[in-house]
Write a structure and sequence with these properties.
Distance between the termini: 36 Å
Number of helices: 14
Shape: globular
Strand content: under 5%
Largest sheet: none
Radius of gyration: 21 Å
Structural class: mainly alpha
Order of helices and strands: HHHHHHHHHHHHHH
Helix content: over 70%
Length: 332
């Protein structure tokens, strides 16, 4: 059985790799080498520097999101080390491998329980998802007349994400009572035995078991840092496009950026979403009359900038290794 699971896992990764390669080929078919060279030569050094600085700020903010929930387990600098590893593995290899790296390092070096690492990861995702949902709601309403066939998918996303967030907040407010009620409803409809549903219910139960006084202040700080992170991410997206002299209006930028972040939640990313990110951007921006012959080479350039940006936080890893030791705990 383990061999069978490993085979299925490998087949899925091979599929994702083939999909990414196919989408990269499609992206290059929308432009030519001369346009790419021209875009690179004309790149703005000023906006490139701003993009690098914003990426560092985003890394620090992402660390802060985890730290407000793990501050009894790790220092900020220890958390930063874990997040740099997680982001590096995620953006250069696989998203799933990045999550595994975060859980493994937290457990091995800092003795953080796996269940706590998983709940923390999910809480951070909920914080991000709340900001994205609000941004999509506002921007979608303001660009509604421009997005044509995207109206229905946008509405479905808003309803679906809203339902997920509602379940989360009801769990926080009513705790075991709500989880028990939800479990009975799922069992009545024969859904409780589905593995994905079982896993989701176990996460909700773990969340319900956390004491209110232990969660209230960290959650407020988490949502504050999540909204700040979202704003900086939007500015980073603007700066990345501005490197190649593409300046987008505010609401279309918020709308497309929100959709792009939701695309990243799908488990089909390899190498930081190469191919998928660019082709999705081409499609979403087409609703705002952005010419593909200008956008395609810029997206290829942005991909290169993205990988260069991910190299900068790696400087911290040898500095951390030289100055810190894994957290030690006394056995109980």
């Amino acid at each position: 059985m383990p061999v069978r699971k490993q085979g299925a896992f490998s087949a899925w990764n091979i599929f994702k790799l083939i999909l990414a390669i196919g989408l990269v080929v499609f992206l290059f078919s929308r432009t030519d080498i001369a346009s790419i060279v021209s875009a690179v030569k004309g790149a703005s050094i000023f906006w490139l520097g701003i993009t690098f600085a914003l990426f560092i700020l985003m890394t620090l903010l992402k660390t802060l999101q985890y730290y407000v929930l793990l501050r009894n387990e790790m220092t900020f600098w220890q958390t930063l080390n874990v997040i740099v590893w997680q982001n590096t593995v995620t953006n250069f290899l696989l998203a799933g491998a990045g999550i595994a790296a975060y859980i493994t390092i937290s457990r091995a070096e800092h003795k953080v329980r796996v269940s706590q690492s998983v709940v923390t990861f999910l809480l951070v995702k909920i914080g991000d998802l709340t900001g994205i949902w609000l941004a999509l709601l506002l921007s979608g309403w303001l660009v509604w007349s421009q997005i044509g066939v995207l109206q229905t998918p946008t509405l479905i996303l808003l309803i679906g994400i809203g339902a997920v967030l509602l379940v989360f907040f009801l769990t926080i407010l009513f705790r075991d009572g709500f989880v028990s009620l939800l479990d009975k409803i799922l069992e009545r409809f024969g859904l409780s035995k589905i593995s994905l549903v079982e896993r989701g219910m176990s996460y909700l139960q773990g969340l319900a078991n956390i004491k209110h006084e232990e969660l209230q202040t960290p959650l407020l700080l988490l949502f504050l840092t999540s909204f700040i992170y979202l704003v900086v991410t939007l500015i980073w997206n603007y700066a990345s496009l501005a490197i190649f002299h593409l300046q987008m209006d505010a609401m279309p930028l918020v709308f497309v950026s929100s959709l792009m972040q939701l695309v990243s939640y799908f488990p089909i990313y390899v190498f930081g979403g190469i191919g998928i990110t660019e082709t999705s951007s081409l499609y979403f921006w087409s609703f705002f009359q952005i010419p593909q012959d200008a956008l395609a080479p810029a997206l290829i350039g942005i991909r290169a900038v993205f990988y260069l940006s991910n190299l900068i936080p790696l400087i911290y890893l040898p500095l951390y290794a030289a100055t810190h030791k894994p957290k030690e705990r006394t056995a109980i």
